Amino acid sequence: MDFANFALFFAAALAIAISPGPGLLYVAARTLAGGRNEGLASSFGTGLGGLVHVAAGAIGVSALVLASAEAFAVLKIAGAIYLVWLGYKSFRESGIAIDTRVTATGAMRAFREGIVVEALNPKTAAFFLAFLPQFVDPSVGPVWLQFVVLGLISVTLNTAVDVVATFLAARARDAAVSRPGLLRRLRQGAGVAIASLGLALFLARRPASL
């Protein structure tokens, strides 16, 4: 991947990582319930669970490229459309607050639950299959290796943001749930950004398919 494409990928991955989605809200809720250690444990747990999807996606996308270049192109177009839908969904559900009903479980259990929750989350699998193939180019190297590298960067960014959110929630537990307006605006902005990314990727590939 050339520098321009990598810069676009990194900017998009960072924007998605900092958007207050379900994973970030889960980590914040876990921190509010059990404190900083439990929040950190759940952050690393969800990160490890995300690697399961990276490995599975690398195998699946590589097999798809070997089977049919046209099918891979369809996957990229479908992925771009999915990002638009994901952005719209995030904007529409921007008013959803942190679930304060989450109870403390202990750091080890929070870590294990984080792995299981993320590894078995079909939305995470769908997201990786929608986002990462947009930046994979079969002509420049092994597809599986590109997918793994990009996936590791995405998971690292997501985990880093979760860790920051954990420290912020631990320092200001009340503030995390007493400012729903700020959270709503952040989610609305993230929704617009994700949808715009998907639309731009979709339109950029339309001429090639004509």
In terms of DSSP E residues, the strand content is: under 5%
For the record, the count of structural domains works out to: 1
What is the alpha-carbon Rg in Å? 18 Å
Counting DSSP H or I runs of 4 or more residues, the number of helices is 9
Average pLDDT level = 77
Estimate the helix proportion, in percent. Answer: over 70%
What attributes characterize this protein structure?
single chain, 82% helix, globular
Describe the structure.
The protein is mostly helical. It has one domain (3-209). The protein is built from nine helices and no strands. The chain has helices spanning 3-18, 22-34, 36-67, 69-92, 107-119, 122-131, 143-171, 173-178, 180-209. The protein starts with a helix and ends with a helix. The model is unreliable at 206-210 (pLDDT under 50).
Explain the layout of strands and helices.
Blueprint: H1 3-18, H2 22-34, H3 36-67, H4 69-92, H5 107-119, H6 122-131, H7 143-171, H8 173-178, H9 180-209
In short:
By secondary structure, the protein is an all-alpha fold. It has helices at 3-18, 22-34, 36-67, 69-92, 107-119, 122-131, 143-171, 173-178, 180-209.
